[in-house]
Amino acid sequence: MEKDCFNYAKGCEDCQRNGPIQHLPAVPLNPIVKPRPFRGWAMDFVGKIVPNSSNEHTFIIVATDYFTKWVEASAVKSISSSIVIAFIKQHIIHRFGIPETITTDRGTSFISKEIQDFSDAYGIKFVQSSPYFPRANGQAESTNKVLINIIKKMVESNPRDCHERLSKALWADRTSKKTSIGTTPFALTYGHDAVLPVEINVQSLRLEKQPDMDDAAYIESMMKELEELSPIRAKALNHLMIGKQAVARAYNKRVRGKTFEEEELVWRAILPVGAHVSGFGKWSPTWEGPFLVNRILGKGAYLLQDMNGTLHQHHINGQWLKKFIPSLWEATGIDLSDDQRGNV
Residue limits of the Integrase catalytic domain (predicted)? Predict the structure, then answer.
């Protein structure tokens, strides 16, 4: 009897529809490590920026190389696939070559047919994170926060100058030492540190010696820098691996695993969390469904379908799903139609 009571309570659809959402991660962290420079980029938009810049720029498109942490960014007036393609060509391909992968969210400017055609033409694999799961593109989110914090300090007196400060913000970021790689993005890219204004004012040792170097000494110095670049990059890769493993260990301690099978019934959280359903206001449910799991995509992502077989357009992370528990009557096959109620 007690077991039946528990099963009855668990199968209450109203209770399931209004139950809490698990905010702890559902699957272990899968850190992205690219062992070579400029082969993998994380990309995202900052914005919409209010107030917009004096040039009417309302967004900043940002891309970060996974290995060197080198950041490219450009202020733009709107979000579109053509702007994304132009940025990739000018700021990535023409400077660093064709990358292997670009990781983005599922914004319309990243998943259009125009982007797909561009991807096929250049052999670039676009990797999209699940909706409402920003940690899947954590590198882009991290870079956005850093750039915003730098620009904030520069535009306090005139926020509409943000587009003019972007270049300085990028310079500051590229020449700042990163804990994750143990050096600066500039040094990891070019093999030596950038010459900073302070070195001009105080005449650093390397600048003092440079005018006295003959051609042979200068060539020897450059060759030495090139020889040291590979060990520096190997050391940076080791830093990256150690850092990623430490983050993964800490993250995975919080994981409360849940998995789903194909054709299993599930509830899907109404997103964004806290959104109100039309007509319900504050009494809006937390979950909607049930839906069927159509396909397991890996790394905690699933593709769902409606009960009538209609596939959902976007996949979703398992954190935003929970198992549908049938009512006690459905589980036992008892018919509770009106003409049967008198016999139960």
Answer: 33-193
